Amino acid sequence: MSETADIRRPAWRPGAAAWLRLIQAEAKMVIRDYAGLIVPLGLPLLILVMQGISIEERGQEIAEGVTVFSYYALPVVISMVVATIAVINMPSFLATYRKTKLLRRLAVTPASPAMVLVAQMVVSFIQVVLGIGLAFAVALIFFDAALPLAPLTAAGVLLACCAAMYGLGMIVASIAPTPNSSVAIGLIAFFGIAALGGMFGPADNLPEVLQTVGSWLPFGASVEAFQSAWLGEAVEFQNWVVLGGSAVMGAGVAGALFRWE
Amino acid sequence: MTQQTAPLAIDAQHLVKRYRQKTAVDGISLQVRAGETFGILGTNGAGKTTTVEMIAGLRRPSEGTVRILGLDPFTDRAQVRQILGVQLQEAYLHGSLSCWELVELYRSFYPDPLDAQTALAMVELTEKAKTRFDDLSGGQMQRLSIALALIGRPEVVILDELTTGLDPKARRRVWSTIESLTEQTVILVSHAMDEVERLCGRVALIDQGRVIAQGSPEHLKEQAAAVTLEDAFVALTGKDIHDDEEDD
Asked: Which residue range or ranges hold the ABC transmembrane type-2 domain (chain A) (predicted)?
């Protein structure tokens, strides 16, 4: 038959209002399912307080205005906030969306499933900022902590840390077949990199081999880079390589393996 | 313009879908005219869902072509998404959001959507506007899915297993909603004979990935010398529609 209708029209793509609605939707999902906020906000606070109590001579200055506590605890806590959100929470949301075919539902609208991923990242970043703000408030009020001597460097490290942890999170989201397995893989990955990066005490206390391994993983590299920023020193090149490399590797693996359904 | 002379809204030619060893769809051709409500009927595993997913652009055919109002759902994806409304067989929505929030979210994806009030009223969910999706009954979830499929004022609507799992009252409410779609071209995928017979002007019977017969319910009954569409289906396919086979 030749009488097929043809209604060529300009392609239309969802605009700013749709992005805003989707970000709002993702934020509401996170807020209303508030149990998911306990780990990224509560666990780092717990570690912060434990380190604050247990670190001997926490108030001793190791550089002008930088206490032992600020140097050891805050870099670990910031890295934890980012890692728990990017490596545990975000892949779990994506795995749930994939399992329930929510992404597939969006794929038949003018919105792309990739919009959900971006909205998730925006909401996650807001959580990161809140988590860090909360940790800083407790650290400043109760433990006389100090802000980094090189705040711009610290901000740059934070962005690199986010990119690296999201890279790792996307690998988890790509290889996890179910929401439960996503949480399991995310937790193992998180505790693996965090333990070697100084979450349970300064990495300097670990055997040398483990210290070396830890510094080549994103958590350890992030902690070392933040410590440099706290002292107002330049971040070591290796730290940038590890953080950047993790982000690139994560994007590559996700590009090859990530499934929307 | 009558339906017989209306232009083709959907033109699917020689669709084939292979998954490694298995051929799920084996040369299906369907032509649906603008304004028509067309049924696709078959047992579980017959290839119904795979066929409509290829038409909707969710699965790329191994062979064959699809045109929706002259557009290719893969190369003209953005345009097709504007004119196509799809209710998928199994698809969840953001569970913590209310009906109103979901409708507003999906409205934002389209250039000229229905207003939220109208969309909810159309499926009789106005009173549930503030209820979260997770707290809706199965029938209410299904009706909300239909509202979201229609929110962008689509010209072509695909409804997959519209009333599966609904009680008789909920099924009738959903049918009334579909009967009110007089402007749209509708493809209705089902294994419910009564539903197809009531709603569809023409039906394709699908079995093992092929179209076994096609025509109006009356024509199919005549062709099989059967009293009911179910008898016609059994006579033409050799299978009971209620046989439980593997999923599509």
From this structure: 35-261
Which residue in chain A has the smallest CA separation from B102? A25
* DSSP one-letter code for B93: -
Residue B114 in any domain: the answer is yes
In chain A, whose CA is at the least distance from the CA of B148?
A109
Residue B240 lies in a domain: no
How far apart are alpha carbons B106 and A42 in whole angstroms? Answer: 34
Domain hosting residue B210, numbered range: 8-235
CATH number at residue B83: 3.40.50.300
| A198 within some domain | yes
What does DSSP assign to residue A88? Answer: I
The edge-to-edge listing of strands for the beta sheet with B8-19 is B22-33, B8-19, B63-68
Q: Which residue among B7, B88, B90 sits closest to A3, beta carbon to beta carbon? A: B7
Query: Which amino acid belongs to residue B155?
Result: E
| Minimal-distance CA residue of chain B relative to A101 | B91
Chain A residues within 8 A of B58 when measuring between CB atoms: 104, 107-108
* CA atoms in the 13 A half-sphere facing the CB of B6: 18
- How would residue A74 be classed by pLDDT, with cut points 50, 70 and 90? very high
Q: What is the ipTM of this complex?
A: 0.85
Number of domains in chain B: 1
Q: Give yes or no for A17 touching B (CB within 8 A).
A: yes
Query: Does residue A159 form part of some domain?
Result: yes
The gap between the terminal CA atoms of chain A, to the nearest Å, is 35
Is residue A27 within 8 angstroms of chain B, CB to CB?
no
Burial label, A65 (beta-carbon count in 10 A; 0-12, 13-18, 19+): exposed
pLDDT, residue B245, reads 45
Assigned domain for B3 exists = no
d(CA A231, CA A52): 19
The tokens describing B100, both together, are 């109103």
Contacts with A108 from chain B: Cβ below 8 Å:
56-58, 81, 84, 86, 88
Which structural domain range is residue A148 located in?
20-253
**Total number of domains constituting chain A:** 1
With CA atoms as reference, the chain B residue closest to A10 would be B79
CB–CB of B91 and A8 under 8 A? Answer: no
pLDDT one-digit tens code per residue, A122-180: 999 999 999 999 999 999 999 888 899 999 999 999 999 999 999 999 999 999 989 99
Q: Which residues pair with B13 in a beta bridge?
A: B65
Asked if the Cβ–Cβ distance from A11 to B7 is below 8 Å, we say no
Residue closest to A39 by CA, chosen among A1, A4, A85: A85
